[in-house]
Amino acid sequence: MNELVVISPHHDDLGFSVPLLLSTWSKLGLSLKFITCFTYSNYAPNKIGLSSQEVTKIRQQEDQEFLLKLGSKHPQINLGLLDAPLRLKCSSDLTCKRKFNEVDLQEAIHLSLQLKDKIGMGSILAPLGLGNHIDHLIVLHACMLLSPDRSIIFYEDLPYAAEISFQEILNNVESIARKIKRPLKSILYKNTDAVKQKKQFANIYRSQITEKDLYNLVQYTRNLGGERIWTDSKTQENLKIIEK
User: Fold this and answer.
1) Torsion on CA atoms 31, 27, 221, 230, rounded to nearest 10
2) Which member of 6, 35, 92, 103 has the greatest number of CB atoms within 10 A?
3) pTM of full prediction above 0.85
4) How far apart are CA 123 and CA 158, in angstroms?
5) Low-confidence ranges of the chain (pLDDT < 70)
């Protein structure tokens, strides 16, 4: 695997979902490139009353702190797309209740073209779209459109994954596997210090993390003993994962 392109819907998604894996891969010397899609935002539950410009700047700064904590310099691209509340002119609590429709599919197609121009033939790390946040679903569909030409790995979106059953996660994975026409297997990266490290990464996103979300993602990490990803057998063989 020459390069892994890590694709995130928003600035905080990687820090909540797979920071331990990314930290491990970074230390192993795997070439990582980060692309964040919906980066223009007014969502900051812990910073009420700020403008979109102010929120966007704060979230970018938090993401830079996250990348520094990974321990190595990696290229990052912010696409500058409007996140769902701004784009759809809706409240943030409706972003997970709206069904994926034709307009969203066209957004995904357009996003896939943007991504293709920036990732070359690199492998992809993409969200599963758990929780049905519309931005996550758009990124998922965009990445699936790119999957025939490259290896693809899926991560479990936190804290959303902690709010649904394993069967729901499995149903989601099986649906994706059918669409990309390749079976997906889970890989569990276990870490004896997973909970402590996860808290440290999540708390970087001070404008975003709520007590409820922190509790949920910590409990989920504790129950797993680490972080879980999904990919096909061939890609699995190429991954460098340290079991601790």
Assistant:
1) 30
2) 6
3) yes
4) 22
5) 1, 72, 240-244
